[in-house]
Amino acid sequence: MHMPQLGLGTFRLQGQQAIDSVRNGLELGYRHIDTAQIYGNEEEVGRALANAKVARGEVFVTTKIWTENLDSERLAASLKESLRKLRLEQVDLTLIHWPSPGKAVPVAESMQALLAAREAGHTKAIGISNFPVALMREAIDAVGAHNIATNQVELHPYLQNRTVAAFARDAGIHVTAYMPLAYGKVMDDKVIGAIAARLQATPAQMTLAWLLAKGYAVIPSSTKRANLASNLDATALVLAPQDLAAIDALDRGERLVSPEFAPEWD
To answer: Which of 27, 88, 231, 245 has the most CB atoms around its CB within 10 Å?
Structure first.
């Protein structure tokens, strides 16, 4: 699986806004688009992909299975519906969006159903999202770490999720960072701002470059073409060890996404 390290997230983007963001992103050079069933924008993402002057094989598309579709009877059908909305015969990566609330559906059942969907040709790769270490172990026991392409988790300077990231690394599972700019909080951070000013970059670019330097995939989103272009430029930035360490020191365990049905976090 070749997943471009910097992708375009579509969380909270609706209607024409979602279409425009994906269209602008593809025109600017993004080749990794991330959506999900619960985002309610798969059709808009599909329309933007269909109208783009980019070959299907050049774009990496991720979607995620919502919690109500995690049992073996519903998962495949829900993925086929996602494919219909996305106007695709196959997605590149399908994730379990959240572990089943209250463990109503065993992790093993969902992972095996997802693996079956891959074997049926509906997705090239499979993975997980919002899985703490205990549930990562269950997923590995169910299908093997080699079949889990990534664990997509909240990860930014204020929540560095080090326990999960270290476990994933040791297991050979890639980490994708969502909410990388902490809802924009990094823009006002004095430490990040000082580094950015010295390197003639933006705080967003600094944060993305820090995450990329750690080997994570990142999926920031924006409705503004200028911000999409600016974020893409983060791939050219190289941070000195002392700059990486300064941002490392900002970790304060500040989780921004934790719904009532969230698992027990590490």
So the answer is: 231
